[in-house]
Amino acid sequence: MKRFVQGTDRTQSILLPEQLEDYVSEDNPVRVIDVFVDSLDLGSLGFGGAKPAQTGRPSYHPSVLLKIYIYGYLNRVQSSRRLEREAQRNIEVMWLTSRPTPDFKTIADFRKNNGPAISKVCRQFVLMCRNLDLFANADIAIDGSKFKAVNNRDKNFTDRKLQARIEQLEANIARYLEELDRADRQPELVPEARVSHLKEKIASIKKQIEGFNEINKQLQQTPDKQISLTDPDARSMATSGRGTGMVGYNVQTAVDTRNHLIVSHEVTNVGHDRTQLASMAAQAQNAIGKQDLTVVADRGYFSGAEILACEKLGVTPLVPKPLTSGNRAQGLFDKTDFIYLAQSDEYQCPAGQRAIWRFTTIEHGLRWHKYWSSACPACPIKAQCTTGTNRRIARWEHEDVLERMQRRLNVWPNPAAYAGRPSSIRLARSRRGWGQLIS
């Protein structure tokens, strides 16, 4: 074994430190957990067992179990059985808890029975970060993640899925009836046992169709026309893969881009992010106690109404506009090629003509102004602009809000921060301890 790093003889006597304190360095994160938990009044936060009972077997103090719980999430050890093993062999956990070794059932019951109290602990942690000015100069990045529910796809129904299932069952019945007709015409070709089996199958399928019809009645009474049987709150959601989807939840997360701490979160069953920006910004404001926030999000959050709501909250949103212009894809001018002239309330087109206001309409609850120029039919570059008689331009009544945001994006002095937004989210999630504790 020469020329290799050599180990120590297993029979060699060695002198180990006599105290657990010597095994834990001064900058070890478990010291933060220890100080933080010991500073809490667990009784006032709602933890059961904070005051010992006068009779019966002594219980573990909730601070011991809370430290194990926090340590597990900080180190991505969420299983109660694995936490039990860590308490028996992990020197950091031994130091943190002073060597009690609760079993997995005790750890699991603590987590199950103290959910509201643990949420209050999370709020106390955010308040501590506020007092330490960790959020003083931070921007907020918002993103959503899809989390799979207990409910599988076969237990989730929409109008389309339900009708497809019923049509499939009806096609099966038709096939079985056709086979029964053949048995009547030529009984020697179809055994009696097969006939009996077909009749049972038809009766079973008819019962399934009756059940689906009953589900359809309930489906029509739901606001989003969707039902999940196992996990009623879960909803079918599209994922990034084409043609794929899952039944689950959309978890919104707000992270400060400076220290990568999750400051707020919300679990929703809405399959998209377009309506989440303002509510998450408001939650971030309340969490860190700061009103003039800059909130960064990706294109999936772009919504005029949400961006307007953010400005009313005093939040500065930075959300790029989705690249969905059909005209640009066809090689035609898109809306960005038309210059809005605020003083005269009209647009200047690429040909230098003026598109004036024509009328105002309400579409999807929003007020839109419509503009076009009378010079369109004779315009020499009309083929580059529109295939219709006139090129119509729609302007939302609060379009100036979106224009101001675009100007901020164009001159924002720290574009790298936007590029780093996803990494901030991922880093905060990887530190599941403090971030996941806010759930």
Automatic annotation (TrEMBL):
Keyword tags: Coiled coil
Q: List each copy of the Transposase IS4-like domain by range.
A: 239-342
| InterPro entries in the record | IS1182_transpos, Transposase_11, Transposase_InsH_N
**What is the organism field in this record?**
Collimonas pratensis
Q: Which NCBIfam families match?
A: transpos_IS1182
Please list the residue ranges annotated as the Transposase InsH N-terminal domain: 19-112
- Please give the name of this protein: Transposase DDE domain protein
One Pfam family recorded for the sequence: DDE_Tnp_1
* PANTHER family in the cross-refs: TRANSPOSASE, TRANSPOSASE DDE DOMAIN-CONTAINING PROTEIN
Coiled coil regions in record: 159-222
Lineage of producing organism: Bacteria, Pseudomonadati, Pseudomonadota, Betaproteobacteria, Burkholderiales
Top-rank taxon, per record: Bacteria
